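We close this part of the discussion by returning to an individual protein. The encoding preserves chain order, so positions in sequence and tokens coincide. The sequence in question and its structure tokens are set out directly beneath this paragraph:

===
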Amino acid sequence: AGATMRTEISTAAAFVTRLLRAAGGIGEEQLRCFREYLQEALREHYKHHWFPLVPSKGSGYRCIRINHKMDPLIGKAAGMIGLSHERLFQLLPSELTLWVDPFEVSYRIGEDGSICVLYESPQPGGKVTKPLESRISCKEEWRTGRSSPSKNYNMMTVSS
């Protein structure tokens, strides 16, 4: 399964890296390292949960989620470049869902946002996947989603 998920994982890691870059304040070298660490974490996490013949199988396991809790894979990659969870919450949307499935990577910002497709390739055997939604609405939503006022959450920090 290793080679077949490379594009999907690369697409997902690049997307999260772009969100961090857009927020600003992180150097290019740190971003490059973050992307590499995230790709490695995703590869390891998905290793036994990648089913190209049944793309939806294991989808929940492969879902990357920020919902007032930081996704552990993003948190781990960020920790490797010295970014705290608190800093990540400032830089990334407070609600982000990223689905990394065979042949498709898509995301949603906010609980009620539209689902936007980042990557889609035809499945072997000529199965037709669902048509792409309008990319303009996705881009607009991403822009407006980022410019909405950030909510303040009380966060408990635990230090060891």
